[in-house]
Amino acid sequence: MCGIVGYIGNRNCVPILLEGLKRLEYRGYDSAGIGIIQDNLPVIIKNKGKVSLLEEKINEQKLKSVIGIGHTRWATHGIPNELNAHPHTNSDRTLFIIHNGIIENFQKLKNGLKSLGYKFETDTDSEVFAHLIDSFLGKGYNLTKSVQMALNEIEGTYGLAVIYSKEPDKIIAARKGSPLVIGLGKDENFLASDVSALLAHTKNVIYLDDGEFAEIFKDRYSVRTIADTEIEKEIHEINMSLDELDKAGFSHFMLKEIMEQPESVRNSMRGRLVADTGEAVLGGLIDVIDRLVSSKRILISACGTSWHSALVGEYMLEQYARIPVEVEYASEFRYRNPVISADDSILFISQSGETADTLAALKEAKSRGALVLGICNVVGSTIARESMSGVYIHAGPEIGVASTKAFTSQLVVLALITLLISRKKGLSSIEGKKITEALIGLPEKIEIILKLNEGIEKLAEEFKDSRNFLYLGRGYNFPVALEGALKLKEISYIHAEGYPAAEMKHGPIALIDEDMPVVFVAPKDSTYEKILSNIQEVKARGGRIIAIADEGDDEIDELVDYSIKIPRTIEMLTPILTSIPLQLLAYHIAVKKGLDVDQPRNLAKSVTVE
Ligand code: G6P
Fold it and tell me: pLDDT higher for 243 or 485?
């Protein structure tokens, strides 16, 4: 949420900042801005709307600077407009700051600063940082000390970048709860909220941890705690290529990511299956496997789409590993004083590895002694690093705000964890081999489903003007119904609800008429006969029905208006297949409505505020 980019070196930073902001735009895109020091004078350019508008504004002027910071915003305090866009400055405009996160005590600090004569121009909490730092500069402290002293007064979260025209040889960065990474170059260094903004320039990075503070010069850096203790940081090499961040000829990242699923699913299981014995090997869990297998209970916590994966994980683990599983929204978990013991294992699922609620829940669980494991996509992300152990899903960078390939890869990893635990708990090798074979067969089946794209596009034409949608599924496919509805509302702004099909009778059935399309996720699994009855109930009330059904299921065609037929797999893995037509349906409806699929209104890819 919100993107930060910074540069210090010998090159003109303006194109570097703009390119970085474009890479980060998926994190927030309601306004953007840069701050540079040109001929010793600070220059700030900001704009409401997308980075492309900022770029037009910047291109009208000849800007050149060897130090600068840039920001793309997702508004929290203050509406998205030019004034509230970052950077924010002190009164004499010598200092500018960029801030991701929320200052919880901003009103108190603001009142205090106002009483000292400071004038505020914006509605943001972030502006407090600029004046607060200024108040220490005014007392004669240097920039570094002033930022440290300001941080001591801040309650809340921040990923902070600061530059000061009177000390133009450094960028100061500080982190608490909002990610920051330093990129190391030769005679130049970078700062960003995620590595995608750095990749064009360097693969060597340092991840800042919470409570850390960095001074970044063009040829050196230092990292310290806010209390000023020097920290030796490890340099990581990013294992990602720039190509992975491009649309590769697709009209949208979302479509590219949907189409990548044969490969992303393959990557999630690469080297992790032993087909001969029907087992899974997960390097990240080797050290904790005994504790995991002997867990009395497994909790899974996440937000958004990752929470839907967690629900599927519950079905998988309970069916095969026979360990009680509970799934909880991270935002609820963190505040309700959950009963947790050392016998519990808690899985935190997060594509970005940065979601604020998930991270806070993880810290809460860790402090209570449970085994805490992360399932993340972004390598080196905070949740991955804060977990005791974990498994990367290896789906590759996901840029489209609506999660697609990360969802199916999360399900693959949950299936692998299920296989790993259940084989250790006595699941037979015959059963294990059925699962491994089915997993290995998935990419080919996904390819078959993706060939249905054109047909699904036609269906989208038929339904694009609907104002409501209902998605229903049972068992393993109840979470798929939730996910299908979420995909549609996220990008098409059509109201959609997902429900367990049988629950329909307890409310949603009242909504059904010819204007309410109902999507049934109905593969031939153990709940199939039951869901046929639910389809009958909708049909009897005139609802228009789309079914996701198995190839060769002619019976269902008698009941529904449209069907999308997909290859069969074992019940546990059906969500990995059934979710894909729903991704395509949502995608095409949104495109046909002329909406911004990759950057839907009000949403952000990585929600780093609670
Ligand atoms: C945001 C994104 C969703 C995502 C959710 C959780 O709302 O728009 O696509 O599912 O955050 O994110 P995470 O990175 O923790 O999986």
Answer: 485
